[in-house]
Amino acid sequence: MLYGNKSNNQRESGTPFMRNAAKTQFERTMKREGRIVTTYTGGTEFRAFFRTRDEHENQRETIIMYYDVTAPVRPGTLVMVGYGVFLALNRETVENDIYYKSTLIKCNGVFNENTGKIHNVPFYCDNMKSSVSIGNSTISMLNGNLELITEENSLSKQIDINQHFNEFGRTFRVTNKYIMDGIVHLIAEVEADQKADFVYTIKIDGLLNSSVPVNSVIQLEATPYVNDNPTTGATLDWKSSDNYIATVDGTGKISGISEGEVQIIVTWVEKDISETISITVVNADVPVIPESTYTCTITGNTNLKNGYRRTYTVTFTDKDGNIMDWQEIDYQWNVLADFDIKQTVSENKITLSIDNEDLIGEHFLLQVLVEGETKLEVTVNIVE
Question: Which of 88, 121, 286, 346 is buried most deeply by CB count within 10 Å?
Fold first, then answer.
């Protein structure tokens, strides 16, 4: 009886009991129904499960997402869920510290500014037959005007009044813009149709010479461009012309298998364009960079993404093409920049990172100094 009374008191006074019960139920549901969700900006993965909304609420393509409180979701976050891109309209707090829930609405348009400066910004735009409420606001389409909503990020911040974009078969001009609770609101009006001339290209980085030793691994990275402006949100597909010579995974990581020549192809799926580089896989004993005196190479992606880390490796080769022991070389790394860059050196590698949106588009020099003299330098670009 005494044990039973304690249990009842715990339930009634009960924050620990109720919290444990909520946590257990949440974890069981997540294990049973959880699926991988990816943030559109940054590509961070987390797990969530979903519920549909009541039909009578007159919502278009809306679902409820439940997720751990540590997940990178806030009002305005764009997430990729299976078949589409969704915008989080809110983040409802619950009386526990275990999970949040958000109403998501499926994006039905993409903002592509007509000069190509801003590309691939998913948005939601309502039509005249329905509406969606966000706080005290209602999105609508009246008299040829549209109100669009999207995530507040470095791309949407560049959208400005008087910029033009084509969508829904018409040309629109942005006439107003405001940001509220992490959500960017754009007002746009119909204008005379304009033709947007976009040139799509892909640039492959990370390979500083065309030779790859057998059993070595090199990380490539492809950056899609629209009219010479780097863009995000592209689906990239990597392939090797001969997997017996070299393989490449879905991230662009090449593995040398056997001697020979091979082409590595990356395709921008949505635009059906490809870029190809040729690679020669050589025996590890064959000189990769033959020179009259010893030289060095720096491998690593020359595009440093804001908010990410990049690792660069220096390799020294003697005049006969043999790889030298880096510990026998009197060298040091040097970063030549007018701004602060976080640096971590380990063995013959240096890891760099920067987290400052204002520096996107800037560049700096990464140098290898031997006995105080510059032996090699590469230009590293800061990209979104």
Answer: 121
